[in-house]
Design goal:
Blueprint (H helix, E strand, L loop, with lengths): L10 E10 L5 E8 L3 E5 L9 E6 L9 E11 L3 E8 L2 H15 L21
Antiparallel strand pairs: 1-2, 1-4, 2-3, 3-6, 4-5, 5-6
């Protein structure tokens, strides 16, 4: 059985992360990400259907880590877990979109401008 097509473009980026369900935070690594989901490298992935809390830092100049609630969509034992980001503030989802775009277009030094009411500044063009 195959996976449904992805709704958003993903980029490969290794980022330190933590996730939790009914346990203390567990260290993991984001392997790839989009504004809709992430793949976490973890040797003991939670079961499909589990809702988890998730936290990771983006290397985009933002001051706050990304914090989200995710739904486990698929697991690969001893490898990792595919997470759909189901609860994420709109501004954070936009921050993820801009980060993905910056990676895709090779604009690595853009940063979030918290004073811009339109959202992240120095948008890739």
């Amino acid at each position: 059985m195959g996976h449904a097509p992805r709704r958003a473009v993903r980029v490969d980026r290794l980022l330190e992360a933590e996730y939790w369900a009914s346990s203390p935070p567990i260290s993991a690594r984001v392997q790839d990400l989009s504004a809709e989901g992430v793949f976490l490298e973890t040797p003991h992935p939670p079961a499909v259907g589990t809702v988890i809390g998730l936290r990771f830092e983006l290397p985009d100049g933002g001051d706050a880590p990304v914090r989200a609630r995710g739904l486990v969509r698929h697991t690969d034992p001893m490898v990792g877990v595919g997470i759909e980001l189901v609860e994420l503030p709109d501004a954070t989802r936009e921050r993820l979109r801009m980060f993905v775009a910056s990676v895709l277009f090779g604009v690595e030094n853009w940063r979030v401008d918290e004073h811009d009411p339109e959202g992240p500044g120095d948008r890739p063009r």
